[in-house]
Amino acid sequence: MEAHSSIFGNYSTIHGPKTPCYALKFASFSSSKQVLLRTHLSFPSNIAITEKRLRIRTSVEEVHSEIVGPNVLEDSVRAKVRRKNLAVFVSGGGSNFKSLHEATVNGFIHGDISVLVTNKPDCGGAEFARDKGIPVILFPKVKDGSGLSSKDLVNAIRSYKVDFIVLAGYLKLIPTELIRAFPRSILNIHPSLLPAFGGKGYYGMKVHKAVIASGARYSGPTIHFVDEEYDRGRILAQRIVPVLPNDTAEELAARVLHEEHKLYKEVVAALCEERIIWREDGVPLIQCKENLSLYK
Ligand code: GRF
Q: For the chain, which ranges sit under pLDDT 50?
């Protein structure tokens, strides 16, 4: 790790990936220690990343607690929490869905995909689900009259005892009935750093083209809770990838998608292990697996 000084403070350059965890000042974490907040940019492992240290006294604290080994904690968390049932919504190829499915099968996610919802019964995601024996629901209704109404969708999802709904490239609007029936329980992934390049009209390659045209030097996936405003629910997790000077939209999309697969697995794993907590102002935080007193 190299240290640099500048008018902005002390910087250190570190090499390799790093997932940051932060301590927050809650009533139960009373400490008057000086604060050290570390911000990390998460890049592919061969790219040097920069760690900036800021001295802040009020909002973040160092917490000195014993770090429990990941496996010990994982086992103890999982022994206490029920395995969750997930509904995944897709409209396309479903690479995120496939990656999440693999993570439920190999045990990374403490849950199962109980049902797949799609508006495109022949899409790659729906074919994959049928192949794996996962029931497929059509929503909304299509021209020939097949497909469920919003009310029937809520009932169908409830009949699978679904705990959480995971949107993975589903292009239709989520009905208000479903959002109200599953408060704080629906996640979406978007391929830009929200709130930039989100909302109506920002989907697929349009997002990446707009990012490149804007001159933004960084992009990356955002995972957020879904509420009644399009792409505006509270942000739960983000990951940064560089936008390179000669990037095409396709190249940037591939770089972002690679991170999407990793990030969605980690976040859905946290959701299923009940490691999401809600800050007083309504912002959701992920408790670190290695130490539940630290947050991502
Ligand atoms: C992803 O880029 C995701 O961010 C967006 O839709 C795309 C779905 O891709 N919401 P896939 O079908 O999972 O490959």
A: 1-17, 26-70
